[in-house]
Amino acid sequence: MVIGRNEGERLKACLAKLPNGPTTVYVDSGSHDGSLEFARGHGVDTISLTSDKPFTAARGRNAGIYRLLERHPGLEFIQTVDGDCLIDDHWLEKGVAALEAHPTAGVVFGSLREVNPDGSLYNYLCDRSWNAPIGEAESCGGIAMHRVAAIRPAGGFDERLIAGEESDLCLKIRKDGWSVLSIDAEMGLHDAAILEFGQWRCRMRRTGYAYAEHVARNGKASLPGWKRQVLRFSFWGLALPLFIMIAAFALFFANRSLLWLAAPLSLYPLQFFRIWMRERRKSRYAIRIALLTVYEKFAELAGAIQFLTRSITRKRSKIIEYK
What we know:
This protein has 323 residues and is an alpha/beta fold. The protein has helices spanning 9-16, 35-41, 57-71, 91-101, 121-129, 148-151, 165-175, 197-218, 224-253, 262-265, 267-279, 286-313, and strands at 2-4, 25-28, 45-48, 77-82, 85-87, 105-114, 135-137, 144-147, 179-190. Keywords: Glycosyltransferase, Membrane, Transferase, Transmembrane, Transmembrane helix.
């Protein structure tokens, strides 16, 4: 089951790697680049989502899953794929084998790599971020193989979420006693196509939005890794700058030296230095990775603030696109 929006040539390559039969469905979210027409022209079962509701990955995946189950009620497993991905030739068989060998696994996923990791620093960072340690995991991304018996009682993906819908579903199925399993197998290739800083910043803002919404919705039951991320960007992006500002005003009105601010201000260069030291033996991008890692907390905070603002004003959220 494939979802896409204006993926163009990436979608063509994606569909070419999948079985061209009745169990392959493509769900399009308002593309205007001919993606829908291409899929139809090649005999793929297609769904064109209407614009009366917000386009989200969750909505697209649910539409595809419901279509498959309607036409093939006996399906046990469903592979979800984004239109910018190329599924490995052997992954479907390996995914099925893993779910059959682990009857308590609700979702399985393998390693994902970037098509062009050397194309930009941002592609390189995406390439590093995809893969989880082998074994039971907290959550997975949108490219994974799902057990119908696990996702159906959970209600599928929450269509109100503009990001983080995969982790939300993983949390629900884990509450029902299923596990999320990372296996030692090549799952496929992903084409992030992030070549500019603005794209990366937008992606980080979406990530912060997803973290904040997940924790706001689930509270103490949130995924531990996601709670840690919220604490990190809240400290580096909000708490520390706010403390520095308040301390600066206090020192100024008390006629005290502003040199006292050197200690809290030094935490940022110290954080940069710590990350640079960690990266310098692993990557030629060490300095730039350190800078981006420090900055990304502010981008994630911006996404969290966007979520809070929309929650307070009760405005309908729209997808945050970066390409």
